[in-house]
Amino acid sequence: MRQVIAGNWKMQGRLADISAYAADLKAATPSAMLLVCPPFLLVDRFAAALLGSAVALGGQDCHWAAQGAHTGDISAPMLAEAGASHVILGHSERRADHAESNAIVRAKAQAAIAAGLTAIICVGETEAERDAGEAADIVKTQLRHSLPDGFAGLIAYEPVWAIGTGRTPGTEEIATMHATIRAAVVAQLGESGRALPILYGGSVKPDNAAAILVLPEVGGALVGGASLKAADFLAIAACARHD
Ligand code: PGA
């Protein structure tokens, strides 16, 4: 299966950044699947700039309702209409900033699927949870309560303490957690759980990407800061494993 290299721009990037970035991605021929998740307002402009390329677009969140009185929110059908095929859900910044529970993430994933979007559900422990030896249990609980029945999207394992810090778990720790996640999703979803790509996220950079992407059960990377520059994002994609 092709690895997925997903860029999460977060609340960064302006209209003026799009055309050069999109041109660089269009000119590249990585073996990995590329996915860019810009702020909502840039999705349709990005879709126009990427027209004719295989680069996919995603949102960074969506509401659990298809429409309604939810001031300031964006629905999954709106994202799809703007040109997104994917949506990141349950990112730790949303879980923390917006008090998103596993139940909310699950409802959002159901809304995304109903709109034809592929959801990327994020899980990951805090540093305190890791220090307390609870990382695997926390992640398994998040999976159990965030994944809808029959889920067929992607999972991103993002240790909260590794996001934006320049710190990453050791490669053995990443491999162990990805194996734990694989076992949990197979127990939860049955055989179909074997096919779910499990991305690693948290301070993935051009200089550590190869060591991470080569690990078993790592289906790609969710990249924040290093996705903002096309050259860095493509350097990470160039490290993707060819299976
Ligand atoms: P980072 O962010 O690569 O800047 O650590 C990853 C993420 O939050 O998805």
Span between termini: 6 Å
Strands of the widest sheet, in order across it, are 1-2-3-4-5-6-7-8
C-alpha geometry: globular
Strand content: 5-15%
Helix content: 40-55%
Which structural class fits the helix and strand makeup? alpha/beta
Order of helices and strands: EHEHEHEHHEHHEHEHEH
Cα gyration radius (Å)? 17 Å
In the predicted model, the low-confidence regions spanning at least 5 consecutive residues are none
| Small molecules held by this entry | 2-phosphoglycolic acid
Average per-residue pLDDT, rounded, comes to: 97
Summed up, the helix count is: 10
In total, how many beta strands? Answer: 8
The biggest beta sheet, please? 8 strands, parallel, barrel
Main traits of this protein?
alpha/beta; binds 2-phosphoglycolic acid
Describe this structure in words.
The chain is an alpha/beta fold and 243 residues long. The chain contains ten helices and eight strands. It has helices at 15-27, 40-49, 76-82, 92-97, 102-114, 127-131, 135-146, 171-189, 209-213, 230-237; strands spanning 4-8, 33-37, 56-59, 86-89, 118-123, 154-157, 198-201, 220-223. Strands 1-2-3-4-5-6-7-8 form an eight-stranded parallel beta barrel, surrounded by six helices. β7, α9 and β8 (220-223) form a beta-alpha-beta unit. The longest helix has 19 residues, at 171-189. It is globular, with a radius of gyration of 17 Å. 44% of the residues are buried. Bound molecules: 2-phosphoglycolic acid. 2-phosphoglycolic acid (PGA) is lined by residues 8, 158, 163-164, 201-204, 222-226. Residues 8, 158, 163-164, 201-204, 222-226 line the site of 2-phosphoglycolic acid.
